[in-house]
Design a protein that fits this description.
Layout (H helix, E strand, L loop, with lengths): L12 H16 L9 H8 L3 H13 L3 E4 L3 E4 L6 E2 L15 E9 L3 H7 L7 E10 L2 E10 L16 H11 L6 E10 L2 H6 L7 E11 L2 E11 L3 E6 L2 E6 L2
Antiparallel strand pairs: 1-2, 3-11, 4-5, 5-6, 6-9, 7-8, 8-9, 10-11
Helix pairs in contact: 1-3, 2-3
């Protein structure tokens, strides 16, 4: 077969630089060590700063580097796997759940979530914010959207705002018989609020995991979890695809 046009395209300069930088990280830097500034690195490797930034961004996406506010770019620690969705037959907030409830407010969900829930545009639902940590570091932030019809007994319960009300919503949700769930994963960018929760910069690459929970023949709740893309990997096993995250 003849050579395709793509096969004749030379390797981008930043991609070659990424390989060189990766080797330097292995041989010259320790985990947590702060890298020299961009000007110094660009001068050392004889490249433009724009090329250097592309290489650094790729290494961050691959989990080799971390960029932290007020600190700079540091060498990332090795990944430690933490299973996501290990309790396929349990509601959020069950005993096996590894998430921490943070807050609960009445908000109108995004249009895509409203369609999954079958609620009208602009209709408010219980929005539970949760955080997940491993080794003391935040690895994921979640918004769990629960329509009032899924927790009808909540109106008679006087729960204080914040984490207490979030836990109450979760307990009421568990009164339903869970019939199943499905999950979708896609690449996205961190919103400002999620970035703050995850100690990332706004716009940093993240994995968005959307889970629908089914009860009584309908969608009872939708969870949208934002995972740090630099600390996540997909593994394949007998149970199918499993998403792992690391801090």
């Amino acid at each position: 077969m003849g050579t395709t046009q793509l096969e004749t395209v030379p390797e981008p300069k930043y991609w070659h630089l990424k390989t060189v930088l990766s080797e330097a990280l292995d041989s010259e830097f320790a985990v947590g060590e702060i890298l020299p500034n961009e000007r110094e690195l660009a001068a050392r490797f004889g490249v433009a700063r724009a090329t250097l930034r592309q290489a650094l961004e790729q290494l961050e996406l691959e989990g080799r580097l971390q960029r932290r506010r007020g600190v700079g770019t540091t060498v990332a620690p090795p990944r430690v796997g933490v299973a996501v969705g290990e309790a396929e037959d349990a509601w959020p907030g069950a005993a096996t759940d590894s998430w921490q409830a943070v807050d609960c407010q009445e908000t109108a969900p995004p249009a895509a979530v409203a369609r999954l829930l079958g609620t009208a545009a602009g209709q408010t639902v219980h929005t539970v914010r949760r955080i997940r940590r491993t080794h003391g570091q935040p690895v994921a932030a979640e918004l769990l959207y629960v329509p009032g019809s899924s927790v009808p007994g909540l109106a008679a319960i006087d729960a204080a705002p914040g984490a207490a009300r979030a836990r109450t919503v979760l307990r009421e949700l568990q009164r339903l018989g869970l019939e199943g769930q499905d999950c979708a994963v896609e690449l996205g960018s961190a919103r400002a609020e999620d970035a703050k929760q995850l100690d990332r910069l706004p716009g940093a690459p993240v994995l968005l995991v959307t889970t629908r929970y089914f009860a009584e023949g309908a969608t009872a709740a939708v969870a949208v979890a934002t995972y740090r893309a630099d600390t996540c990997r997909l593994t394949f096993g007998e149970a199918g695809v499993q998403l792992l995250a690391a801090g």
